[in-house]
Amino acid sequence: MISFTCDYIEGAHPEILKRLVETNMIQVEGYGEDHFCDSARAKIKEATGCSEADVFFLVGGTQTNATVIDAMLRRFEGVIAVETGHIAVHESGAVEFCGHKVITLPSHNGKMDPAELRQYLEHFHGDPTWPHMVYPGMVYISFPTEYGTIYSRKELEQIHDVCVEYKIPLFVDGARLGYGLASPAADLSLSELAARCDAFYIGGTKVGALCGEAVVFPKGNAPRQFFTSIKQHGALLAKGRLLGIQFDTLFTDDLYFKIARHAIDMAMLLRKEFANKGYEFYMDSPTNQQFPILTQQQMDALDGKVHFEVWDKLPDGRFITRFATSWATPRENIDQLAQLI
Amino acid sequence: MISFTCDYIEGAHPEILKRLVETNMIQVEGYGEDHFCDSARAKIKEATGCSEADVFFLVGGTQTNATVIDAMLRRFEGVIAVETGHIAVHESGAVEFCGHKVITLPSHNGKMDPAELRQYLEHFHGDPTWPHMVYPGMVYISFPTEYGTIYSRKELEQIHDVCVEYKIPLFVDGARLGYGLASPAADLSLSELAARCDAFYIGGTKVGALCGEAVVFPKGNAPRQFFTSIKQHGALLAKGRLLGIQFDTLFTDDLYFKIARHAIDMAMLLRKEFANKGYEFYMDSPTNQQFPILTQQQMDALDGKVHFEVWDKLPDGRFITRFATSWATPRENIDQLAQLI
Amino acid sequence: MISFTCDYIEGAHPEILKRLVETNMIQVEGYGEDHFCDSARAKIKEATGCSEADVFFLVGGTQTNATVIDAMLRRFEGVIAVETGHIAVHESGAVEFCGHKVITLPSHNGKMDPAELRQYLEHFHGDPTWPHMVYPGMVYISFPTEYGTIYSRKELEQIHDVCVEYKIPLFVDGARLGYGLASPAADLSLSELAARCDAFYIGGTKVGALCGEAVVFPKGNAPRQFFTSIKQHGALLAKGRLLGIQFDTLFTDDLYFKIARHAIDMAMLLRKEFANKGYEFYMDSPTNQQFPILTQQQMDALDGKVHFEVWDKLPDGRFITRFATSWATPRENIDQLAQLI
Amino acid sequence: MISFTCDYIEGAHPEILKRLVETNMIQVEGYGEDHFCDSARAKIKEATGCSEADVFFLVGGTQTNATVIDAMLRRFEGVIAVETGHIAVHESGAVEFCGHKVITLPSHNGKMDPAELRQYLEHFHGDPTWPHMVYPGMVYISFPTEYGTIYSRKELEQIHDVCVEYKIPLFVDGARLGYGLASPAADLSLSELAARCDAFYIGGTKVGALCGEAVVFPKGNAPRQFFTSIKQHGALLAKGRLLGIQFDTLFTDDLYFKIARHAIDMAMLLRKEFANKGYEFYMDSPTNQQFPILTQQQMDALDGKVHFEVWDKLPDGRFITRFATSWATPRENIDQLAQLI
Q1: Reduced to 3 states, what is the DSSP secondary structure of residue A119?
Q2: Whole-angstrom distance, CA of residue C212 vs CA of residue C260
Q3: Does the reported pTM lie above 0.95?
Q4: Distance from CA of B98 to the nearest CA of D (A)
Q5: Which of D5, D41, D112, D2 has its CA nearest to residue D334?
Q6: Helix (H, G, I), strand (E, B) or coil at A152
Q7: What's the complex ipTM?
Q8: Residues of A in contact with C90 (CB under 8 A)
Q9: Looking at residues C200-221, what average pLDDT do you find?
């Protein structure tokens, strides 16, 4: 049985485990103030080209989104996202739990349209009753999106420009950031992304770590006393080393990008196999999530041999499925799958 | 340089790392639905003697306290704790952040007095203006307390009896549970503790794990849809295996208690060394945290050689210090310390 | 200058002011425990045909929605509303401020479609990932809606049936309840409405009172300790008499319905005048809010003579306007308007 | 039967009712944007000597405290109050409901000691673990206090100085402000108070209004978009005129202070009567709340003739009672009481 259900079905990249073992008995301070975290922060500043950046390590994606958004917003503000955005759909209302509305715009294969964003903001500020409504205080996008798509540099710039114009920050959810940047379709680098937003995070959980997300405020613009906010949100690890060591390893010798590229290579192979056999795709994804459309019969053929996710049923009775690769996907699994489909 | 600053300065017990490495490439489901978590849950049910228990794995202590308390309370209720309780002092207001007041009673070396608890509740319910006040909806104690002290079985029973009488649940913060139960002063077992409260957690972070706390609702009395609450609080790990494997290891062959006992053995030795040299103690702790009182001169003598925490200054100019041992403290460190004090 | 901008531009019905003056120096208890409130509660129980009802008096609409919804939901639940619902649009995110997502369904002239509601709930419960999403814990509708439309008895029943099927309560925002029930298009009475929901409120602010909304839990099903929740939400008046006297007056001699009927009579006249002159309407409203479409020229003609609200601009350059009548609208104002349009 | 139970047992000052009646049918805008509110704001600016002030009208005390405190604090901050402060005791946890801890200092007859405040802040900022605790972001005091006592100008200055030193705002709860300023013991004026804090409110509910509290930010320092915060907290009245007219009346011809002085005159008479008869007082209050100590026999003698509050029982079996006067207390009631005690 092989599985393509998601990108967090294995543990951590072996190099990470090796480092955890090697450093295990070294006594260090808690709460992210250890030298592993310091080292990881330095490497991330360099990799992002943001020498002034503030970098914090949190544990998981939903937690990171809620903590960052809540800390950056004022009490009466909400965050704009597309209606398929992770915070709008699959985080159990963690943002609303913190008191903030998620204001939704249409999703275009998971992406926000810069023109629609501007139009929304124009309309809001032009409406004399706006003080009776939730103030749009921030924009949230994910890179890549929940549908595996990515923004071009120009699109990101356009969204950022609107944010600058309306004086609200842009936050990029990078739970799968590595897979986005490693995509052949990507036309921007990590530092180029960092320069076009006010906060983002580098996802570890889905890209080789056991857990962990590195939050970056590129211009040293962390919200005041963000450490305390992290603690208050229950997101502070006593053994911060667990995160520091992992990100230090991931940002040594380009490991983060190397393993991300592997996942993309496997995804492209997988796509080719499906395409060669004449399968259609629900959407054209250039990253590690692929969405082939399967008939019931095709699904039955894989039953008990391959795991994957079924997302939805089409009116014609076929199914939208998701096959995800990761840093851990062996070439053999793709080959095995190729023989089964 | 040796350190006694706290019980989370090293990584994880080597057996845990070994298991993480061995199981690393096994593909499993996320979010705690994997077989490692299942196995850990089964072992914890057995160890607690609660075959009907609901068991959940969360990441850290503050997070666990906030999530459990918020899920068990109604909106208008608060939680009773002693004024030195961790939730009242050192969690950045995480409980209040969730909307609930921490109602404080006096601390007696970190412990709550059952009689004072009853008195408070009697007074509250006898006050005709009580609907204008925060309803005391839960009792929170820690075992051991923030001062290393522990409740006797009788004291725990008395507190539990008051809770039963007033129909409010008792929640035990067990961030250092192992060290409490392993203390020579403890007169109750894990299952005896489990039988005398409505919820508690078995601390992993401070007792051998990289991170992780196992929340137990002994009578299968988890709040409705607690899984969703965990997610909403940002406390759900995608790679739940990280927690499952750790707790499965800790509850195999009694490892959790063995390593806790080691920490206690070391603490008792440490205490003896200080006592033999004539040091006084701020408080008589039977667990892994010891509070010797040092003069400035004595502190200077340790400078650069031993790390420990300074808690407060006494009126006479001496200092209350904290020396903590853990599962990882080697006997040699105690010997070294003995020569320095 | 005459105004039709909304239904809260005047003070209170004169009978209310008279009663406030007459009773002014009578000494009574605070917080709604006075005999005026008792009397008003008794009259409302009778008028709603709910002898077991729990009745509470709050101050304003947004406050009432947030307080009731927050008290009826569990922490991890959200409330379903149409996307034009007041709580979704014009309450500054008061529901999210309390921690709950407003889950939106399409709006059909302000109304929720029972079939779409069922479909949403079916889909939610059929999705295996639902524990990662906000649990739909309640349905919110307004009667009449923000567009002046009303549910038929059958439609209300259908929505209620879905709620019963999914075991979630139905809450009816009755900020303009009187105007809805007094409409010639209404085919249900107050007691028939009360029998088909789990909570609703009788709007006072917009139907003759200075302020005040009477919340009714028809089956005595108020959330536990709702009084404390009201206080916690800042919604408890020290001088509860202000609300008690007003509702006691409104529910004496059918005053609430008499004055609501007057508003409807005036609205129907107003509509006829516009219709007779060939104006189109944005939507066919049977209640006190009317939405004639005006050209720029027609707007200019009214400038400085009549106040009304402009809601939106149509693609053809014309404007959707809102003209609202109320208990206070004199017949002469309609006649004056008729001469101007 | 006469009552001294509190200062909100009657309706409103007759002049207010008169104005409500006179202005009733004037059509005005909602939400506090009417000319009555404008006029009241102008008069309050003049009375407080703060020409740059921002003035807002809210409905009740608990609501005002929660709204102002939540809007002025950052997410991770708490508010410092004495342990008898209204927000700490009698507001059902409304401040914690909004996510903020109420940090308590000792109460000295209801007052905060400036030296203890400084000591607390010094200790907090000197503690290296402070980022793990709730940041003290604001100071709350009440004038007069819940025990009827008042701060001298010097005491207020000292507290304000500490706030300035630590760069945190000082907020004064003036639910009974008039009674404090009208006290013969008061050595400061309204404008002098306004100059020594960052926000305060002028209580209407307890000083002649049906409801209403006027929040003043003396230096035009209202939190950004405070209007929206008011709405979000459910504190915005659609018919803002109700508050505007009341405060406009109270600040015309010095009415607010005249009626406050009357209450104080009656309280001083009442105190003299008790003192002349040899009664002791629990505390020496210079304002409208008096706390004579009664035996059971003395209580029995008043039974059925006079209403008052019993606050607590002394160890010797006697009772601490509260007798409150107000703008509405007639001289005859004092005389009647004098004959009964």
Answers
A1: helix
A2: 16
A3: yes
A4: 6
A5: D2
A6: coil
A7: 0.97
A8: 129, 132-133
A9: 98
